[in-house]
Amino acid sequence: MNEINNSILTLILLLPLAGALLVLLAPDRVKLPNWIALLTSLATFGLTLHLPAHFDKAQTGFQFVVNLQWIEKPAIFYHLGVDGLSLWLVVLVGLLAPIGVIASWNAIRERRKLFFALFLVQQTAMFGVFLSLDLILYYGFWELSLVPMAILIAMYGRKDGPRAALKFFLFTFIPSAPLLVAILWLYARTGSFDFATLQLWIASGALPAGALWWVALTFLFAFAVKVPVFPLHGWLADTFSEAPVALAMVVAGKLGLYSMLRFHIGLFPTQARAVAPLLVGLAVIGILYGACLALVQRDFWRLMAFAALSHLSLITLGIYGLTLTGWEGAVYQILNHGVVDGALFLLLGLLYDRYRTSEINAYGGLAAKLPRTATFFVFASLAMIGLPMLGGFVGEFMILLGTFTGVSKGWAIAATLGVILGAAYMLWLVQRLFFGPESALATSKPPEDLRLGQLTVLWPLAALMLVMGIAPMFWLPTIQTGPHPPLRPQQAAATQYPIILHGTCAAAAHEAPELIATSELAAKCESNGEGQR
Amino acid sequence: MNPVPDIFRILPEVILTLTGVLVMLLDASLPPRWARRPLGWVAAFGTTFALWASLWQISLPMGTGFSGTVETSAFTVFFHVLICGLVLVALLLSLDTLPEESHHQGEFYALIVFGAVGMCLLTGAVELLLVFIALEISSIATYVLVGYRKNTARGPEAAIKYFLLGSFATAFLLYGIALIFGATGTTEIYEIARLAPTAPNHSLILAGLGLMLVGILFKVSAAPFHVWTPDVYEGAPSPVVALISTAPKAAAFALLLRVVYEMLPTLRPVWSPLLWVVAVLSMTVGNLAALRQTNVKRMLAYSSIAHAGYLLAAFAGLGNDGIMAACFYIAAYAAMNVGVFAVVTLASGYDEKLPLIDDFRGLIYRSPLLGSLLIFFLASLVGIPFTGGFFGKFISFSTAIGGGAIWLVIIGLLNSGLAAAYYLRLALAAAQRPEHDSNEKSAPPQVAQGARVGIAVGAALLLAVAATLVLGIIPGDVLRAAEAGAHTLQAPPAESGAPGNAVEPQP
Q1: Do residue A184 and residue B398 have CB atoms under 8 angstroms apart?
Q2: Which residues of A fall within a CB distance of 8 Å from B413?
Q3: With pLDDT > 70 as the criterion, what percentage of chain B qualifies?
């Protein structure tokens, strides 16, 4: 078992890559590439499930760590590890892969080998981003994730693929250049690319504060474009309307949000705290702006794009509220958003494949023809809106609660308004697509509802949304072992420790976030922690 | 007492010379009706042998031969291996792409090999007159090769431009050598290094350095001495461009390293800002001009100017680090650039009926292998991680930051973001679905024909891909070799210690 634990992360990284090679070598006959890709992604998903099964919930910090020297000079390490923050994100990436393959099953008709090979390379890159603890390794995967995405958008785009691909690539590549400068600067000062070492260096105050400001901002900028945060979302709508369904599921959100938590706030707590009010403001603007624009879109891909902007902004709000409840809600909401978006994109992709248009007004009255599609779509929409008992509710509620108690009541109310708008545009979309008078489009083709292959994916997804809504305790305890938001300066002074709040204290903080703000409790928690150790 | 026979010090050069002479003689003595293609194999074989001889030289103790004019050290071995590898790739590439009926094929191969002699000698020379002679040997061979497509107007034009401007630049170099000789009374690099700091006429040395830099920077096509590059690359046959955009540049950079780090290290306050300016100019001018190109080879020419700029950024690094980074970047740049030109040669054919970016549209649909390789090499040129291009840039810029040149790095990385735009334009064109695939037969049939990949060119592509990947994923060995080279370049000449058993880079 120990050997598996030692090599599991490497296996997760390499398996999709091996699958990609196999797809390239195998002949393109009778959907062979599809099957290889499906089996590879299922096997990878199985491997990722090993992580939560053997994750030690009593322990904070990184587990399943691999740390090998890669290059002597400059000192770069092959350093991987998982903690409460990244654990479920890795599983989510594993889960979305087979869904992506299913969604592309009939949609991709030509050049299947290339498509599935690049899709699997994309998997590896995304796993790499979540697992890497060496900044250069991380940067490598971060950049690598752009390439398959750009090529696939260019080759398999719907109308104007190359233009969207160029836009996407430049938008995300150019901010990465300063990011590399910042990483190199850190290395020149500290001689290390290691995450934990750098964390200590920065916390020690030995680095010049003025320069650190710029470094932190550079990190933030690169991540904010990737999320995207308002007003850096220029690439999102075009990418969503061009990208193949399987990629639209993964292109936005996760990578950037995770990087914010891990590498922006995690490395630069002081600077992040200083810049947080700005991001809270931008996030609330993003929520409202995205929701308003989603209301007026005529194309359902673009509607999904602005809906995503709104939802991702909500998560950003949870992150930069810097409350524990907000953080847990944010991570939870990333997971939920991934699942719900996966289901919605799968369904919309099927509609698009069948009717070849994404014009919302052309649809209508499909519910009678395609009852199963309509049912699942309504279900996923409700989960996205945040109906209680479904996944979206838990995350949104925690984020809003954290904002209300920990940041400001005004922002929380404004953000809640965005959530209401969210219900409006989603339900209106459902109404225009599936209900109302039967459109010419609906009668033009013989009805063909979901088939077994798609149902085997959608049923588990729907069940997952329900379980995530009813039983968040499956996920939250592990998420709580992850990193915690930095305390305010006066609290930090009182506790003498800037970033420590773990274990039982975390539970207390969860119960009563406003209480933990008082330094006595924090100090007490701290002494408890000492005593247990 | 030097126990190593002088001839061993120039063994690769000797082998290459003999190969060249053999090819030339065979070409002259074989009946005219016989195909000249096997001569290419002879040349390739000789080059492989020379490559092996270079590797063997690492077992020699470091030192000089022929009265202190030629040196062997880890540094020279690094560049010998690199240059021989590049020449080998260029030969293999020409073997399959030169049309059967082209005239003077034998000479073509011989000239490539003779050029290689000059380049190898240039990296090993530690005496300025020999430096000059070596530079001339390599330049004259390349002047002829550039003008090889005599039936087009562009070919001779390119050759004449290259020749006139090149001779002019060489004259600058020679003038610089003369001034430095005037100031120090010697042409031996180590002696100059010893005498220069105390030389009575300091301004003479400064002038000499400036003139030499002009000559060398012309050869590496750094701005503002770059104007010849696009015209020459456009006019020359593509296999020749694959060679002249890499191997002579590598040799010239080796010379530049020698001149600034070994001959005049004390003048760092003078040359460092100069090279800073040249680096920034090269990247910016190269990238901005490349954005506007529609011809693939011209675009790649400007891209090579920009890469010379990234490479010069490494010179902001201190001592060993700077040399190591520069050596590594040269290897990475050479591997990916020779690869991209190999693909361009195959895709557009020897006679280049399809020179424009738009002509590459849908390449991946017509020839999946070439299309994928083109995208791969372009990704490396962009600097995508896990390719040589990324690591080269990474090392170059991180040493520059170590040397305190943070603005240079910021400009450099912004430039590489800018550069992504035009590389992507070509890559996306190759990935784009052809517009009229079924109803019109507008897809030119030559492409499909030219896309045949033979054994020789397959081996060339394989070498380039393997080198690019090795340099990107497991660069440790090459880095160690480059570092060993950096050590020997910095070491004083009298010391003939073990050169270190560095593992060699693949070409």
Answers
A1: yes
A2: 177-178, 180-181
A3: 92
